[in-house]
Amino acid sequence: MSPHDTGTDTASTTAVTAPTAPRSAAAPQELLAQVWESVMAFDEAATVGTLLRALDAGTPAEDLLLDVIAAVQGRVGREWAANRITVAQEHAATAINDRAVAAVALHPSARTEPTRGRVTVACVDGEWHALPARLLAEVLRIRGWHVDYLGAQVPAPHLVAHLHRTGPDAVALSGSLATRLPAAHATITACQAVGTPVIAGGAAFGPEGRYARLLGADAWAPDARAAADELACGPLPRPRPGHQAVDDLPHLDDQEYTLVARSRPRLVRTVLRQLENSHPAMRSYTDVQRERTAEDLSHIVEFLAAALYTGDEDVFCGFLRWTAGVLDARGVATASLLPALEFLERELQDFPRTTATLRAGAAALTRTLLTAAGTAE
Amino acid sequence: MLVADARAVVVHANEAAGLVFPDARPGTAMADAVPGWLASAHARHTAPLLPAQRPPAGAGTVQGAVGDRSYEAHPTPSDNGTVMWWLVDDTDHRLTREALWTERERTEFLVRSSNLLLSSLNLDRCMDVTAQMAADHLADAALVFAPLHGVELPIVSCVRGGGPSVSRQVVDPQEVPGLAEALQGFPPVPSRWLDPSAAPAWLVPDGLDTVGSIVITPLPGHGVPAGALVLLRADAANAFTEGEEVFARLFAARAGAAMSAARLYAEQASITDTLMRELLPPALRQLSGVEYAGGYRPSKDHERVGGDFYDVHPAAADGEPSLVVLGDVCGKGLEAAVMTGKIRNTLHALLPMADDHHRILSLLNTSLLNSESTRFATIVLASAAREGNTVRLRLTSAGHPAPLILRCDGRVEEAPTKGTLVGALPEITTETARVTLAPGDTCVLYTDGISEARGGPMGGAMFGEERLRRALSECAAMPAEAVVEHVQMLASQWVGSGRHDDMAVVVISAPRTNHLSAVDGHTRGRFTT
To answer: How far lies A10's CA from each of A52, A142, B363, in Å?
Structure first.
C-alpha cells in the first residue's frame, strides 16, 4: 500500500531518480504557512498531503522535519503561552504533527539503509514533550544511523537495560522541562556508568547547554541538526570509568535541594493557607480555582528545587518571568506571585541558598512586572 | 671512593673502587679509567666556573651503569678543585624500584580494565574492551574469540594504537593448536605458545606485518566457556616472559568473567523478552474507520507489565464490530501479568461469541473459578463498528469503572453499564449500554489506577472521577492518541514520584469528518467540506 495516489507517484519517482532537480517545491515560508493552517485545523490529511507533495517535489525530508514541522511545533508552544490557543488545541496540534512526522519518515526519499553506528534516542524520565526527540530520531535515521527511539517517559532502569542489550555508540537525551534536570542527571550518570556517552539537548539544558555541561553530559547540541552533525564528527569519547558523579555538584552537600523537594506538598498547603488568610478574595475561590493555585505553587517549588539542584538562580528567575508572562496573557493577576515567594521564604528561612534564590526570584519578578506595567501604559 | 683533581686525573682510588674500575690508578686520566657518565659528571664539577655556578654541595649525584650493574656516584668537591666521588652500588635498589613500578602499572591496568569491563553487560562491548586493553598493554595485537556461534566464530581484533574491529568468520578453531581447547572453557587449559609459522592467516590481524610470538590464553567464565584471548608480538626477540604470561592470565580471568556475565545477561534478557512479548500491551491504530489508542504504565517503573491489560480484536468480517477489552486483575507485578495473559487468551478463544458480552463474561467467570488461581478481575468490553460517519458502541462493564463518553462539544457522560466482577462468584450479572459516537466523539476506558491515583499538588488527594471528567472535557475533538497521552500525563503528574497502581487507558474515537479517510486506511484523503 502506498501513501501516494496515482497523481504523485510519477513525481515521487522523478524526485528519487533526480533529487538535484526539484520541481515547483513550495517556498519554505509558503509551505510553513500551509502546514500551520492545516495543523491548526487539526486536518491531518491536508497536513500530510502538503508535506508529501513537498517531498515528491524534492524537498529533503530533513528540511521538512526541522524547518517545517519543528517550526510549526515551536509556534504552537508560543501561541499557547500567549493564550491564543488552548492547551487542548496544543495537544491536538502536537498529535497532528506527530502523525506528520510518521508520514514523512515513511516516504521513500526518507528511507536510508543504516550505514553508521547505533544511537538510542530517549526523553528524560517524566518528560512528556516527545516531539523533539522524535524529530531527532528521524533525522538520525535519515542520516544513516541505526536508531532506537524509546519515546517519552522512559524510566532510567528501562533505558539502562536497553543499553546493556544493544550497546549503542551514544544516547541522545532530550529534555524540555528544567524541573526534570535532577532526573536528567540520574539518567546521564546511569548511561555513563555502563560506558555509554550521552549527548543532551532541549530547552531544559539551558542557554548554550550550560546545564548539560553541569550535569556531566559528554556533548550538547542546540537542535536536532547540530546533534546529528556532532555525532557525524566521530564517536563521542567513552565516559571516564570510576568518575564520581557526586563531585559534579558539590553544593548538594547542604541537602537543601532534598529537603525542599521532599516537603513540596507541605509547602504548597502552608503557603496556600497563608495566601487565603492575607488575600480575602481567594477565600471565595471555587475548588477548581483553588487547585489551579495549588498547582501554580507546586510548580514554583519544583523550579525552586531545580534551581537548588543546579545551583543556578536563573532556573528559578527564568521560570518566574515566563509564568508572569503566561498569566498576564491569560488576564490572571500576577500580584499573588510575590506574596507567595515571601511566604515560602518565611517557611524556608533556615536554608541560606534557598532564601537567596527566592530573593533573586522576587527581584526578577518585580523588574518584570514593572516593565510590563511600563509597556502597558 | 675515587678522588680526581681539577685536570681530571685520578689522584686516589681505594680498594673497592679499584675492584669496580681496574684502570683507575693514580695518574690515569678519568676518561680512560671510568665510564663516560662519571667522567662527564667530573668535568661538570671542575669546570672553570664561579663557585656560585657550580652544583651546590650535596647535589650532583649521578647514576649510571658499570658493566651489568649500576652505581650511584655522590660528589664531594673540595676547595683545591679535586672531587671525591663516593660510589654506591644501587643495582638491587634499582631493580626493586623497577619491579615496583611494573607492579604499580599492572595494578593500575587491572583496575582500569576491571572498571571498564564491570560497567557493561553488553558482550560486544566487553569483547571490544578486552581486545583494546590487551593490544595496548600486553602485546602488539590481540584477538578475542567468543565461543562458536553456529558455524561462525565471533572475533574482535585490535592492533596497538588502533580501534577494535569486529568480524564473524567461518573458520575452524582446530586449525590453531590449543585454540579449540581454550574455547571449550572447562576444564581450563594453561596458556600455550604457538609457533608463528603454524598460525593460519586469519589469526593475524591487518596492520601487523610480522609475527614473532603468539600466546593463547583461555577466558574462563562463570562456569561457562567465555572465549579465548590470543596475544601477538611482532618481534621474536621481544617474546613473552613467564611473568608477562602469568599477568596476561590475571587479565584474562577478569575479561572472561565480564564476558560470561554479559552472555548470561543477554541470554536471560532474551528469554524474558520472548516470554514478555505476549504480555505487553499491543500497539493500537485505526481499524475499519474507528480510531483506537491505548496507554499503559505498570505500577513499578522497572517492570514493563502488570495487572492491567487491553486488547483490540479486529472484526472477523467487514461491517462487524471489533472487540475492545480492558481489564484489571487483582494484584500487580509479574504474577498478575501472567494472569492477564491467561485471561487474554481465554477471551481470544471466546471471540466468536463477541456479539453477546454477557455470555463471554460468564464463560470467562466459569473458567476463572475453575482455575487454580484465586485471582479475580474487573473487565470492560466494548464492541465498536463504524456506521456511516458514526461509531456504534456496545459497552459492558464487569465490576469495572464505567467508560466515559466525551462528546465533541466537551460534555462528558458516563456509559450506563454495570456488572459484577469476574472470577469471584458462580453467577455474574451485567448490563450492556448502547452508545453512538458522532464524528469527533470519544469513548474512554480506564482502570482504577488512574481514578484512584493519590498525590496532587498538596499531596494525599485522590485523582478521582470528577477530575478525570474535567480533564477529559478539555480534550474535546482531540485525536485518540492525544487524549490517551493527556490522561496519562495528568495522572503521572498527579502521582509525581509517589507510589501508584497499574494505570491503563484505551480510547475509541469516531474520526472527525472534515475529510474522509482514504479507503486503504492511510491518511491521505479528500476534503468533503
So the answer is: 13, 22, 55
Q: Is the CA virtual torsion A269, A270, A276, A279 positive or negative?
A: negative
Is a pLDDT exceeding 80 seen at residue B17?
A: yes
Average pLDDT, rounded, for chain B: 87
Can you give the pTM of this predicted structure? 0.81
DSSP-based three-state secondary structure for B156: strand
Look up the CATH number of domain A113-248. 3.40.50.280
Contact A36, A72 (CB under 8 A): yes
The answer to whether residues B484 and B507 touch, using CB atoms and an 8 Å cutoff, is: yes
Q: Are residues B18 and B121 in the same domain?
A: no
In which element (H, E) is residue A139 found?
helix A131-142
For domain A1-111, the CATH superfamily is Methionine synthase domain (1.10.1240.10)
Range of the domain at B60: 2-89
Interface residue of A89, A165, A187, A286 to substitute, partner B, most B CBs within 10 Å = A165
8 Å CB contact between A105 and A121:
no
> In whole angstroms, what is the distance from residue B446 CA to residue B486 CA?
13
C-alpha cell at position B379? 473487565
Angle at B248 between CA B243 and CA B254, to 5 degrees: 135
pLDDT of residue A61: 93
Kindly report which listed range (A93-97, B51-55, B94-98, B481-485) carries the lowest average pLDDT score.
Answer: B51-55
Residues of A in contact with B301 (CB under 8 A): 155, 157-158
Query: What interface predicted TM-score (ipTM) does this complex get?
Result: 0.83
Q: How far is CA B27 from the centre of its chain?
A: 75
SS3 call for B464: helix
Q: Say if CB B457 and CB A268 are below 8 A apart.
A: yes
Per DSSP, the residues of B359-384 read HHHHHHHHHHHHSS----EEEEEEEE
B527 CB within 8 Å of a chain A CB: yes
- Could you state, in order of their start, the residue ranges of all structural domains in chain A? 1-111, 113-248, 253-376
Q: Please state, in angstroms and rounded to a whole number, the distance separating the CA atoms of residues A289 and A283.
A: 10
- Mean pLDDT for A266-285 is 90
Q: Does B317 touch chain A (CB under 8 A)?
A: no
Kindly list the strands in the beta sheet with B141-145, ordered across the sheet, starting from the edge strand earlier in the chain: B165-169, B153-159, B141-145, B225-233, B213-220, B192-194
How far apart CA B430 and CA B418 sit, in angstroms, is: 6
Chain A within 8 Å of B300 (Cβ-Cβ)? no
Q: Which residues of A touch B484 (CB under 8 A)?
A: none
* pLDDT tens sequence across A219-259: 999 999 999 999 999 888 888 766 676 778 889 989 999 99
CB within 8 A of A248, min separation 6: which ones? A185, A214, A215, A216
Residues 6+ apart with CB under 8 A from B500: B297, B299, B449, B453, B454, B455, B491
Tell me the pLDDT tens digit for each residue of B227-260.
Answer: 999 999 988 777 788 888 888 888 999 999 999 9
B302 touching chain A per CB within 8 A = yes
CATH architecture for residues A253-376: Orthogonal Bundle (1.10)
How many residues can be counted in chain B? 529
